[in-house]
Amino acid sequence: MFYEPKNHDHGLAKNPFNSLVIPRPIGWISSVSEAGVFNLAPYSFFNAVCYRPPTVMFAGGAGSSSDRNKDSVRNILATGEFVCNLATWDTRSQMNESSASVASDVDEIALTGLTPVESRLVRAPRIAEAPVHLECRLIKTTDIPGWGEGDEYKVVFGEVVGIHIDDAMITDEGLLDIAKIMPIGRLGYNDYTRVDADSMFTMNRPD
Ligand SMILES: Cc1cc2nc3c(=O)[nH]c(=O)nc-3n(C[C@H](O)[C@H](O)[C@H](O)COP(=O)(O)O)c2cc1C
Questions:
Q1: Residues near ligand 1 (Cβ within 6 A)
Q2: Is pLDDT larger for residue 59 or for residue 149?
Q3: Which atom of ligand 1 is the closest one to the Cα of 45?
Q4: What is the pLDDT of residue 84?
Q5: What homologous superfamily does CATH list for 24-199?
Q6: Residue of the nearest CA to atom 28 in ligand 1?
Q7: Is the pTM for the entire model greater than 0.90?
Q8: In the chain, what are the domain boundaries?
Q9: If you measure from the C-alpha of residue 28 to the centroid of ligand 1, how many angstroms do you get, rounded to a whole number?
Q10: Euclidean distance between CA atoms 134 and 126, whole angstroms
């Protein structure tokens, strides 16, 4: 099959795009509002984009408030800071719960029963239950123009200025124990995947 997205003519039960670029990492973004309210939400239009400086991005769609920003994006625009927490198999339910649409004055870390921990370099809190935290400072945002259907996105780029890794997730050889961390990824729809010892394989690169 072939379709042009702008024509909405895929003819399938659901828009397949979300399931075509997969699996997607989940940036579990914690931030703090100007008023000091903690916020937490998952974003799977998320990735690392380069090494030096280590940089991540995520794209926030239109929110329901008057500025049309989701709370995470509004907080980051106001404070210039955020944290990416690694979403794992152990925290999958809380990750999902933290995607609920709640008012911006609701502390979503408390709401999901998770534990906020102070960051070293930014005011945004980290999530204690996550084994990896990337403390980030806003580099810039870029607007993706929509089709006039309320579907515009704001892409947030952040420099990773501090990295926390749970020592228990580092092997004796000095590598990350990914099979132990068990990160989860998004497959579109309401489907996810889990990385574990059975789903990993190694390939050496050609010379
Ligand atoms: C796994 C997952 C991935 C998501 N990815 C995105 C995304 O990339 N962009 C987006 O705008 N919303 C995404 N959402 C929805 C947001 O998490 C949701 O709108 C949330 O309420 C936003 O919270 P905030 O307003 O506190 O930032 C995702 C939801 C889930 C469960």
A1: 26, 39, 41-45, 58-61, 63, 70-72, 96, 99, 101, 186
A2: 59
A3: 8
A4: 98
A5: Electron Transport, Fmn-binding Protein; Chain A (2.30.110.10)
A6: 43
A7: yes
A8: 24-199
A9: 9
A10: 9
